[in-house]
Amino acid sequence: MIVADRKSLNEILDMIKDLKNILIIGCKGCVTVCNVGGSKEVGILASILKIARKKEGHPLEVDEKILERQCDPEYIEQIKDQVEDYEAVISMACGVGPQFLSERYPGCRFFPALNTTFFGGAVQHGIWEERCAGCGTCVIHYFEGMCPIARCSKSLLNGPCGGSAGGKCEISKDVDCIWDMIVRKKMEQGRLDDLLEFMPAKDWTTSRDGGPRKSVREELVQ
Amino acid sequence: MRLSYPSNVKIIQVPCTGRVDILHLLKAIEDGADGVYVAGCLEGECHFIDGNLKAKRKVLYVKKTLEEIGLEPERVEMFNLSAGEGPRFAEIAREMVQRIKELGPSPVNMKKAA
Amino acid sequence: MSDLKSGSNLEKVLNAGHFAFTGECGPPQGANVERLKEKIHHLKGCVDAVNITDNQTAVVRMSSWAASLVVLQEGLEPNFQMVCRDRNRLAIQSDILGIYAHGIRNILCLSGDHQRFGNHPGAKNVFDIDSMQLIHAVKTMRDEGTFLNGQDIDVPPELFIGAASNPFAEPFEFRVHRLAKKIAAGADFIQTQCIYNMDRFREFMKKVVDMGLHEKCYILAGVTPMKSVGMARYMAKQVPGMDVPDSIIKRLQGAGKGKVAGAGIKFAIEQIEEFKEMEGIAGVHLMAIEWEHRVPEIAELAGMLPRPKV
What we know:
Largest sheet of chain B: 2 strands, parallel
Oligomer: heterotrimer
Number of domains of chain C: 1
Number of strands of chain C: 8
Helix content of chain C: 40-55%
CATH topology of chain C: TIM Barrel
Order of helices and strands of chain C: HEHEHEHEHEHEHEHHHEH
Number of helices of chain B: 4
Structural class of chain C: alpha/beta
Number of strands of chain B: 2
Distance between the termini of chain C: 16 Å
Largest interface: A-C, 33 and 37 residues
Largest sheet of chain C: 8 strands, parallel, barrel
Distance between the termini of chain B: 41 Å
Strand content of chain C: 5-15%
Radius of gyration of chain C: 19 Å
Radius of gyration of chain B: 14 Å
Number of helices of chain C: 11
Order of helices and strands of chain B: HEHEHH
């Protein structure tokens, strides 16, 4: 899923500092799964903002709403009668949410409560790790199901580099060296020869480097 | 045991402190409580295995959050004691009340009074 | 290994069968050409070529191509280093043409230390291509006369292609295969990471020789003299991919106050003597960074002088 972290409270408070009446909208998609933008987190943020503003003697009215997803027009439509009632709306969805909302309701102001980071999954309850960089040309089958584009700090296709030590990446002991894992798996599976084959330079046109992307299912487009 | 504890402590009973949510603690502060504490079983003795450990993490989260917005993290606390420790319960109540008295009324309340 | 690919001094020395001796110099963190020239002068006459690092450890310094030009002007031969961290394939191919046009003939192809290490950690990561692909790119430009997209080059660069090898990184069993891969991709010469664990290095070289890699490519063993016990400890603990056995640290500690640097140099000389006789080793790469003034002494003691004229 898409993983995100909530912005700092000071940053969010700064966004709404001159406002008295806002709506916080959560999303039941990815951000609920990574416990950062679901109903619970909306409630928590609403309470925190109210406490902070009460303390300043500058109270804030906050309403709360949750949508199935903020990346589909039919769900965003659901708030059309309420959205004008507020000075601004904080979206607790990933970066897609506030943008879709802004497009659909151009007269209203939408603020992102989150910093969207990566595509990843839960490795432990409460901990998510990056697995995919969205390069548009998946090559994990060459690497025993592991992605060096997303998981190697240098995105090497002919790794490992000389900085791999103790199975960890040179940038930090908290980061596994994916190339160490790839090589070991290849050795275990008796496929080390695969790694002697030269992997040529990647074509980055399908990744974000090639410009903003679009995905079309022609069989579905009316 | 009929031991006395300060009357300005309002008790909310839960089957296990694991049931306490971050939002409960925040709402208490939001609605004007000068302090809020969670009293759970001794670590390792939770009837539901680790409810008290979950509560501990939530209390830490709330403390960090309060600090971020300029409120004293000491207004929220986690205590551990066994169900049979009546005197300890009263002692904790007195300790927390004393702490809050020293901190003064919650800044959330101060502006209301002003 | 007969027909010259670039005609560089380093290539000619190796091709003639001499034991090569290269040095290293880091450009200044500024446009201080005088300081650079000072450092270079110490190396004059002592080395066959001098490596010029490229924003090493992701710290911004004068461009390695620019510093390499200064080296050329001062009458020495540069070994121009290029990392993949800061440039995409357009800039890379462009710079390769540029350096060749200015008379630079050796290129060392490296991945580059991640920018998190350096003094601009917020910089965008490039790594459009990796070191293996860079080696291959230079070889393609030289031997096929085409860019990476297949288009013809209007006067291709004839460069002597180098790469790095770290026998001590992990997984250890894979390092010799990665070396083989670099040679297959086009590396003409290799400079290893600095060596302290001689036992492990001997083990590595045995595999290299078994695979016949030394016949396809010139291998230069990396040597960095230890200046202090602090330096040894730092390298042992803080530098990834570095193997510094306790015995080395103990040896330095045992040297006594004021004599540690001398002991470090003594060990380096011993290593060089062994490398001269080691099968598969075609030379030594001495990395005495910020210690360039000691290089003439080390070169003399190691019997590296005078350097051969080819």
